[in-house]
Amino acid sequence: MSAKLSINLLLRANFYRLWRSASFWAAVSTMFGVGIFELAVGVHAQRQGTPVPLDNRYMLFVLMSGVVLSAFCSLFVGAEYSDGAIRNKIAVGHSRAAVYLANLVTCSAAGVLVCLGYILPMTAAGIPLMGGFTLPPASVLWFTLCAFLMTASLCAVFACAVTALLPPRAGLTGILLPGSFCLVLLCLTWGLLRVVSGEDLMWLKKLAVERR
After folding, report:
1. Kindly report the CA angle at 171 between 108 and 183, in degrees rounded to 5?
2. Using one digit for the tens of pLDDT, what is the confidence trace for 104-134?
3. What is the dihedral of CA 190, 157, 28, 135, to 10 degrees?
4. Count: domains in the chain
5. Where are the alpha helices (DSSP H) in 161-198?
6. How confident is the model at residue 164 (pLDDT cuts 50, 70, 90)?
7. Across all residues in the chain, what is the average pLDDT?
């Protein structure tokens, strides 16, 4: 079996399973619900007199997508280990590299669709309700493209974690990956807040003076 034919067959099977996957539709529904909630918060804040641009609410999907996709990728790819699909694919002649590449492409495409579950209600209802974007359209499109590329990168990391690092305990990654992502996100947020508050900057300045 040629590599091109193998990839095509695997992608067709993966996307067929994706449309029937409860975890995929749960991820899309979660992001859709988060988008509606964030839009409602923004509209309420504007009515209270607080200037909240649509840009701030729109860009939040980058953070939320990481948590949702870590759970989705672990469940979607990990299911292939639990039901024996990986073993069957290899038995019929597909290489492991082709299986992993097909999973990466499928998870990346699913990640973009999950993000669209947030973007569509935010833009469709946010533009008439919140007054549109303050940034130029080109900047919004560039940010969205970069966010999609980041989503594909996250999906690659999550898919590799399931398929290569934790195959014997793939079911546990449904808890481990979201928890690890949230922990890293909290640490980065804490570090950013310390830098913004000036605590670390003061410490670095003091250290530089002492070394002189």
Report:
1. 70
2. 888 889 989 999 999 998 888 888 888 778 8
3. 60
4. 1
5. 173-197
6. low
7. 77
Structure token digits, residue 41: 């918060």
Mean pLDDT to the nearest integer, 38-54: 83
CB 177 within 8 A of CB 74: yes
Position 185 in a domain: no
pLDDT digits (tens, 9 = 90+) for 70-94: 788 878 887 777 777 777 787 777 7
Nearest to 133 by CA among 42, 58, 25: 58
* Alpha carbon distance 47, 183 (integer Å): 34
212 lies in some domain: no
Please name the residues in contact with 175: beta carbons below 8 A apart, sequence gap of 6 or more. Answer: none
Number of Cβ within a 10 Å radius of residue 192: 10
How buried is 31 (Cβ within 10 angstroms: 0-12 exposed, 13-18 middle, 19+ buried)?
buried
Separation CA 94–CA 12 (nearest Å): 14
On whether residue 113 sits in a domain, the answer given is: yes
Residue 101, in any domain of the structure? yes
Q: What is the pTM of this model?
A: 0.76
Domain that holds residue 111: 3-174
CA distance 71 to 175: 7
